[in-house]
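Next comes a single protein record:
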Amino acid sequence: MMTSTTLCKTIGGCLAALLFLTPIQALALPQHNPIPGGVAIVDLPVSDETTPRVFFNQQRVMVRRVDNKWQAVIGIPLDIKPGSHLLTLMKKQGSKELAFKVKNKKYATRHITIPNERMVSPSEKDIERHFREKPLIIAALQTWTEQPEVESNFILPVKGRLTSPFGLKRIYNKQYDRIRRHTGLDIAAPTGTPVIAPARAKVIRIGDYFFTGNTVFLDHGQGLLSMYCHLSKVSVKEGDELKRGDRIGDVGSTGRVNGPHLHWVISLNNTKVEPKLFIDAR
């Protein structure tokens, strides 16, 4: 009988064997990391095949079936207090509350210099523009699409250097009274570097916004959205159905930036969370 060790050698090692597994078999992502800005995976006491409905902070929560059991995949807000929190499982015979723990996490502070002072201290017209654009961005991130299976095992959307991490407390141009949280992951790359879809998705909005510049929103299903900012070029249109690796656009420096990069945002149950949790670190 061929042992697992022999099999791995035959196909070039265990890593090669992993390539034949589906994403769920290889590693069910996102990773469980119940911290502010993280993701909590909670097993649900449901045995039937019907997809359960789960809510947290009055927002619908993504659910998935792994190893014949249902799980809730919960995006945790950056401003949440550590400790015990409740999600609501809706059942035919009524609702049931389930508790889960959120651990503490301290994020670093970083000083950022923006050459264009207008992007730090906007004019009255700039502020008016921002408040016209803000509801469009909010509406996109509130999208919920019923979808039996969500491809949540992501690849990095651009080849580059990871710079500003998620969750940073950022101070622009020494304005100590205006600390802002970094709700995405920055990947530095030259202008024109291709930006690709990290997983199967639908393009639901494209816009040119004051702070984020040329921006594309992708809907992955069940409240999982991703956002691609500061693009120099957009290669898709609203309504396009994308598969993993399809080109979205090009890296640029539109909006509030101090150099060309992609600002990558992931929103889960209308909550911005750590994008690295959706990437297989191996």
Remarks:
- The longest helix spans residues 124-141.
- The chain has four helices and 21 strands.
